[in-house]
Model the fold of this input.
Amino acid sequence: MTTPDTQTEAAADAPRPEARAPRGFMDRRARDLAAERRILARVSEVYERYGFEALDTGALEYADALGKFLPDADRPNEGVFALQDDDDQWMALRYDLTAPLARFVAQNREGLTKPFRRYAYGPVWRNEKPGPGRFREFTQCDADTVGSARPEADAEIIAMAAEGLAAAGLPEGGYVLRINNRRLLNGLLDRAGVADEGQKLAVLRAVDKLDRLGPEGVRLLLGEGRKDESGAFTRGAGLSAAAAESVLAFTAAGAGDRAETLRRIAEVIGGSAEGDAGLEELAGIDRALAGMGVGADRAVFDPSVVRGLEYYTGAVFEAELRLEILDEKGQPARFGSVGGGGRYDDLIARFTGERTPATGFSFGVSRLAAALRAAGRDSGREARGPVVVIAFSPNDMEAYFGVAAELRAAGIAAEVYLGASGMKAQMKYADRRLSPAAVILGGDEIAAGTVTVKDLDLGRALASDVTDNAAWRAERPGQQTVPRDQLVGVVRRILGEAQ
Done:
């Protein structure tokens, strides 16, 4: 016969799961969450000033709508996390915010005003091998204009991205938007006599490695190929020496001045119908950026930018961080790209069969927050703990909660200590929470209608200079007893001085 005691023993002997997070997923505490929320709030404010409306689509989309899976696989989970619905249709967690936008526009196209301008943010999931700085779940923030083929629509997205990055906390000179146009690349390949699609992709992939390999490494990849330090050989694009030099001349045409860059590019690819169309689009972007006051310190034309080899159809842009940061060894390091975007006029046609112009920008929220922290631009103030109300007696809990309620009603975070420890441990708890202040409400204070407030921030500052414990106890730094009706004002002064 099974008794309660034997059931308890069996439960104790049962194997226990190991406490572990799945690979590629991370736990985030208050400081990280507060930093990301602050970024999203500030960027959202910028986007709404530009007239973009917020949109939130569900985490799951039908897998065929996402368009990123193996059609011949029994389980379409290549690159995405997929599951089967009760009607046998495959669904998958969204891997970005643009594919759901394309589905939404196609599904609601009759009722949407055009152009349709929306921004969105939220987690996305990718079923890829995790690694350092590479996660399977992360937060993105997007802004897109659907329904306008004008280059000014691209320019507005670029200007808005620049203003959003500044609002998030990046300093002047800490970032730049690098802009190119896929039509220029197509014109360049036409001039180089490259017609084969596979060879075109090989050229673009070689150009995309310019930052990492430098001109000489790219020159090899444009030709016969390149052997890396491990001895592995990468087959090249097979261009002639003259064609390879024209590609390198194109990538080197960037200048600080956007108009000068256009002139240099025209010297390399002028005369190609596709290339000339790309030049005209960049000229339109330049004029619009100038009208919005976005100079070359924030947005430059850079022919070496290559993004989304089979995705983008026109302008492409990338947000590069230029913050001064140090690596783990204390050496100067580059943080690189934090986001990008461009024109993708073919995506919605997957649903409708009609080409629909669209352009947008996306950035990684967690990556931007990490960059700001690495550069010392994140103070962490939002991760501060609440004011802690010290609890002495179970009989006075009503008074303690009354104090906490009064502070909360005034917009001040507060909590009553609900552990079972004494005052010393409670003060240590408040200190570890980085609480700005502790409220002491003993029997004498309750009877007299007063409260004692201890400024914990001041205490921390003084503690670093106090070496004599007796002097420390005698001075009782930052502690004052005031009438109860002055509590909120005293705490607000402490919070104001802490900021």
